[in-house]
Amino acid sequence: MLSSIRSTTPLLSSTVFLLMGVGVLHTHIALQGEALGFSVAMIGILTSAYYTGFLVGTYTVPRLTHRFGHIRTFAFCTSLLAVVVLVQALTSVYGIWLVLRVLQGLLLVGLYAIIESWLNTAADPSHRSSVFAIYMMLNLGASAVAQQFLHIHGEGFVLFCIVAILVCAACLPVVMTTQPQPSIHAAPRVQVKHMFRLVPTALVSALISGMVLGAFWGLLPLYAAARGLDAAEVGTYMSVAIMGGVALQLPLGRLSDRIDRRLALALISATAALAALANLALPAAGQVTAMLLVFAFGGMSFALYPIAVAHLVDYLRRDELLSGSSTVLLVNGIGSAVGPLLAGALMTLTRPAFLFGWFAILDTLLAGYALYRFIRRKREVTPDDNFVPRVHTTPGAMDPQADAPPEPQAKPG
């Protein structure tokens, strides 16, 4: 285990710096956009633009990696990302911000893919789950800690500079590593129709999870600001929500190992819906109550996608893992792009507090669908059904080199 951690330390170090930069960037763009006079709907479109770039990057960046290798592509993407962030700091033109958000999504999905595929290769197979558990903790933990940069006073330009510094710092451990680069495999095929026919609950869960978390990252800071919180308090509010994901993802994942994953998805999404409704019903709740509610909501919301991926893996053969990974990522990315658009329009037509109404509607739909699938097609849980903590970023998060999963069941899940 120690040897696996030692060999992946440069990558994990890069992850901390990168995710700290990205974590503060998402929140700062929402708050800075509001300060510049952008409407909630316009900020929702900015978030959708980011995830649109995310989708485009899943097709374009792997080709760049195949041509230049992991280290050079990582250095290229981090350097260009720092430039993009600094350019965004220099302008307040909304159209330019849209283009820059697309570029940010494109570059970041490439960086995530490089880190995760490298972790798959560097980690010993017997410890790979533990390494990815550490990666998950660092990922969400870095995003939570990064929100505290919002306590820094000064012009919006200052935080953009901090993001650029963190992104550049993320490049250094990878460039200096002596670990060999992983071999490059052909890009997997996307098979939405086949995967939906085989495991419909996994794809529906990935879609709805994307719609929830896309709006979470892009619009929750605006909801917090509408509650009367200043920038520093918004950072703390976001940190608490993200730390809910850090604290609850593993216990909820272990729960999904012990019962049918569709039932777990139904229970967790129903609980998330209740937490969202409580936020909606208690707009003037005290600070402690508000923090507890958003902690619970974040913990449930961040657990849905990893369980959906684990449910998908239960039904795939070893040679279908890469294809399944690309498919579920594509579906989740579509949800992440569409969610902020619809939520932003809804908040504009009603009031910012109805963001949690949007979350409640989506989680209720998922709970109902997952429960329906569970009742219709029951599956026996076997000792081989093991949950692996995953952060929903790239295809690398579904390990193509992992031990072979159970053979597909006769009936779809």
- Regarding quaternary structure, what we see is single chain
Please report the total strand number as a whole number: 0
Radius of gyration from the alpha-carbon trace, in angstroms: 20 Å
Note the gap between the termini: 34 Å
Anisotropy-based shape? globular
Element-level helix/strand string: HHHHHHHHHHHHH
Spans where pLDDT lies below 50 across 5 or more residues: 393-410
Task: Describe this entry's structure for a reader.
With 413 residues, the chain is mainly α. 76% of the residues lie in helices and 0% in strands. It is built from 13 helices and no strands. α2 packs antiparallel against α3 and α9 runs antiparallel to α10. The longest helix is centred in the first third of the chain and has 34 residues. It starts with a helix and ends in a 37-residue tail after the last helix.
